[in-house]
Write a structure and sequence with these properties.
411 residues; Immunoglobulin-like; five-stranded antiparallel sheet; 12 helices
């Protein structure tokens, strides 16, 4: 039989363009760049502009709308110019930019005056200058965030949340890079710690450890708590609030933008509400949110300070004759050792609220434990406004309070 003709050797030049472009569309930006150096055909194909659109959106969050403002610059050119500016942050930028964008959108709707306190981005050389000043490297996720927003002005309310009790108020600002550098610590107990936040009322800061010294992990974020029983003033316990800047900032923003924290008088209040912590008695629903206050707490001696916010609401479908007034409260308070304390008293925070259909009454109070956790439960006694002889109890759901993880000083 006649020899079958040998098919021509396959070469890239003979392969059709569309399947090759489809294959290239699955490559990451590094591999796409590598393809440019293999041969002329791949160089041409890997420069195909639509291939770079996905990378611009994935890594730099650049939209079609933003591209149209860039005077006919192609996707590849945009990717390269952005990479030359922000390339060292490629693993963090999209996550942090989305967090900032979500936060600004939310603040614009709920806390508009806070937007004006945000500062513009800083340049790479500003961050390098701070590293030279403090003689310590800043983590890339922290630097990246400051390339988007340089914290905020020292104003009230603070971006990182507020807390108010009858005679105590705090509101934490996210510090700009220069103010943070000015508060960089070299003293014993806080060696190589950079403040991230600051409250002008209490002097309270959350710090980030820039080195693993004095028992801290590098980049751990914490509130300091002096050990009042140690003779050594450098003995400082840490209430840990984050393991890295990225985790600390994005988890906070997520709580804010998902409505996890209530907005009260144009401020973000750091009360955490457990969805299960709700009890309904007839037409009245009671729900509770809680917060730990590190600035009023100590580990040695053990004194853990919590505040709680209670919301009492009558269903809007209730009948007008359901209107009632709160007379008294009963609490059963249990600490982690099982010790029980019972408290009874008139009204709540000195008030005797009247509640009717669709009405809400909210108040805040506080408690302390000698253990790192505990819980409270109880009931309110009400009387009907239109039938003074009718009394009934309304359940307060059990709510738990737990101190954040902490590290005892090595001093």
């Amino acid at each position: 039989p006649r020899d079958m003709e040998q098919p021509p050797a396959l070469s890239l030049e003979l392969l059709p363009t569309d399947p090759l472009l489809l294959i290239l569309s699955f490559l990451d930006y590094r591999d796409l760049v590598s393809c440019c150096y293999l041969n002329r055909r791949l160089n041409q194909l890997s420069s195909h502009d639509p291939l770079w659109k996905r990378h611009c959106k994935k890594y730099w969050l650049i939209s079609e709308e933003e591209k149209s403002r860039r005077q006919n610059q192609g996707w590849k050119a945009i990717f390269i110019s952005t990479y030359s500016d922000l390339g060292r942050y490629i693993h963090y930028y999209a996550t942090l930019k989305k967090a900032w964008d979500d936060l600004e959108k939310y603040l614009g709707q709920w806390c508009p005056r806070m937007i004006s306190s945000l500062k513009e981005s800083v340049r790479e050389e500003d961050l390098d200058a701070v590293e030279a000043q403090i003689r310590c490297k800043l983590p890339d996720d922290y630097r990246c965030s400051f390339r988007i927003h340089n914290g905020q002005k020292l104003v009230v309310p603070g971006l990182m949340g507020s807390m108010a009790l009858s005679n105590h108020y705090r509101s934490e600002d996210l510090l700009d890079i220069d103010t943070a550098a000015g508060g960089f610590q070299q003293r014993l107990g806080l060696k190589q710690c950079l403040p991230l936040t600051f409250c002008i009322h209490t002097g309270l800061s959350q710090y980030m450890a820039l080195e693993s010294v004095e028992g801290r992990n590098k980049y751990e974020i914490f509130y300091q708590c002096p050990d009042q029983m140690a003779r050594n003033p450098s003995a400082i316990v840490m209430f840990i609030t984050g393991t890295s800047y990225l985790e600390w900032f994005t988890s906070y923003v997520n709580q804010v933008v998902t409505g996890g924290y209530p907005i009260i008088r144009d401020q973000i209040f750091r009360y955490v509400h457990d969805k299960d912590c709700v009890a309904t008695t007839e037409d009245i629903t009671v729900s509770v949110s809680t917060s730990f206050l590190p600035e009023l707490s100590s580990v040695h001696p053990p004194h853990y300070f919590f505040t709680y916010r209670i919301r009492i609401e009558m269903s809007k479908d209730a009948l007008p004759e359901s209107t009632c007034q709160l007379d008294s409260r009963y609490w059963k308070i249990t600490n982690a050792k099982g010790d029980v304390e019972e408290v009874q008293g008139p009204g709540v925070v000195g008030e005797f609220p009247i509640i009717g259909p669709g009405k809400v009454y909210e108040y805040t109070s506080c408690t302390t434990f000698s253990t790192t956790s505990g819980y409270m439960e109880g009931y309110y006694t009400f009387h009907c406004i239109y039938n003074k002889d009718k009394f009934f109890n309304v359940t307060i759901p059990r709510f738990h309070m737990v101190c954040p993880a902490f590290k005892v000083s090595t001093a």
